[in-house]
Amino acid sequence: MKSVKDRLVLVTGGASGIGRLMALDFARRGGKVVIWDLSQKAIGETVEEGRKEGLEIDGAICDVTDRLAVYKCAEELTEKAGPVDVLVNNAGIVNGKTLLDTADEKIRKIMDVNSLSLFWTAKAFLPSMLERDTGHIVTVSSAAGLVGISGLADYCASKFAAFGFNEAVRMEMRRLRSKVRTTVVCPFFINTGMFDGVKTRFPLLLPILKPSYAASKIVKAVLKNRKSLIMPAFVYCIFLLRILPVSVFDFIADFMGVNHSMDSFTGRN
């Protein structure tokens, strides 16, 4: 297991949800943590919480959907704190409506935050990682990046894209024989508030994950240089089910309640 002691860790969307928990966890392990978010209030609260524990956490407002803003924030961070060692692409949003009930602007926003931002942050920090032949890029995708779900067309598309992005970057690092690591994370619904109201038919097989559990598992996966983390383990069955006829796959998804999990979705206010 590697150490992040005195290593610079950047967590996007790091002022709330599992991003905040991961940031605190990395800092408790000796990492020099920086969080990017849109809420100055939330950033300040997270930084203050860290300071009360004697942790090294800093933060800045950065809109990861703005390509030029990301490059500028990255330049400022590098000048101030040095090169980023671990980049955690955690920022994400959800809409929770069917395709035809979703405004065009909402769809674009989902793709900008959950998918396109990955390109801007990676292009900002990967060159330095390659130059130093060290670094780690973490992509938070979703179980919804492995299977389509009614009411999540935009979210699923964005998370499928995130999964593919990670895989392609991993292959590029492999081809270059680089020591830069990648990890993709595909969790089932996490009880952070973002997915308030979602239901699971078989909670023993597909539990709504606790934020502290999910954040801890992700941090440990990074420290172990795991290439992927899928949770809970039952989600791995998706890969096996893909070999079945589509009609059978769809029947199983219906039976497991996956296709109706968003029926009572309310989301975070």
Q: Main attributes?
A:
globular, alpha/beta
Care to describe what's here?
With 269 residues, the protein is an alpha/beta fold. The protein has 8 helices and 7 strands; from the N terminus they run E-H-E-H-E-H-E-H-E-H-E-H-E-H-H. The chain has helices at 17-28, 40-52, 67-81, 104-132, 153-175, 211-223, 237-241, 246-255; strands at 8-12, 32-37, 57-61, 86-89, 136-140, 181-187, 228-231.
Short description:
The chain is of the alpha/beta class and 269 residues long.
Topology:
Elements: E1 8-12, H1 17-28, E2 32-37, H2 40-52, E3 57-61, H3 67-81, E4 86-89, H4 104-132, E5 136-140, H5 153-175, E6 181-187, H6 211-223, E7 228-231, H7 237-241, H8 246-255
Helix pairs in contact: 1-6, 3-4, 4-5
Following the backbone from N to C, one meets helices and strands in this order, namely EHEHEHEHEHEHEHH
Q: Report the sheet with the most strands, covering strand number, pairing sense and barrel closure.
A: 7 strands, parallel
- How many helix segments? 8
| Rg, Å, rounded | 18 Å
Assembly type: single chain
Q: Which structural category do the helix and sheet elements fall into?
A: alpha/beta
Average pLDDT score:
95
List low-pLDDT spans: none
What is the helix content? 40-55%
Query: Which outline best applies?
Result: globular
How far is the first residue's CA from the last residue's CA? 39 Å
